TrEMBL record:
Entry's localization field: Cell inner membrane
This protein's GO CC annotations: plasma membrane
UniProt protein name: Probable queuosine precursor transporter
Superkingdom of origin organism: Bacteria
Amino acid sequence: MLKTRYTLAYVALMTLVVVASNFLVQFPLNAEVAGINLADILTWGAFSYPVAFLITDLTNRQFGPQAARKVVFAGFVVGVSLSFFTSVPRIAIASGSAYLAGQLLDIAVFNRLRRQAWWRAPLVGSLIGSALDTVMFFSLSFAAFFVFLGPNEPFALESAPILGVLAAEAPRWISWALGDFAVKMIVGLVMLLPYGALMNVLRPMQPARAG
C-alpha cells in the first residue's frame, strides 16, 4: 500500500512536469549571454523538463526499475496526449518518442551504476538520457530526412551561424538542439542537490534487480 501511494505521488509529479514543460515550451527565454540571443535557441520548457529525470531517478532508487518504468509510461501517455492537442503530429511523435527513449535509457544506466558513488548514477543517467532525448526530438522534428513524419519546417532548415555567433553555419535546428542540451546538462548538475538531500529520506524499500 505504501509503495502504491508513493508511486502515485511520483506519477502525479511526472504528470505535472510534463504538463508544465508542454506549456513553457511556448515561451522563449528573452535574454542575451556572450552575444548569444537566447530567445533564438531556448524556451523556458528546457529548464523544467530535466526535472523529469530527477523524478525517474528517485523512483528508481526507492522502488527499482520496474516502478520507474511505470512512472515513465504514465508521463508518456500524458505527454503524447497533450502534444497531439497542442502541436502538429510530427512534433507530438518526436516529443513522445524522445521522452520515452531518454527516460528508459536513464533507468537502465542508473540501475547499472546505482552501487557506485551516490552522484554517479543520477548524473550519468540523466546526461546520457538527455543526450538521446535531444538528438531524437530535434532530428525527428526538424531534420529534412524525417519528412515522412510530416512537412518540413523551412525556417528550421535555413542555414544560420551556429548558436547565432559562430562562423560555421548549420540548419537552425542544430543550434536549437545545442542550446537545449546545454541547459539540460546544467540542470542535470543542479538536480544533484535535491537528489542528495532526498536520498537519505527516500531509502530503497526493496532490493533493486537489473533490467
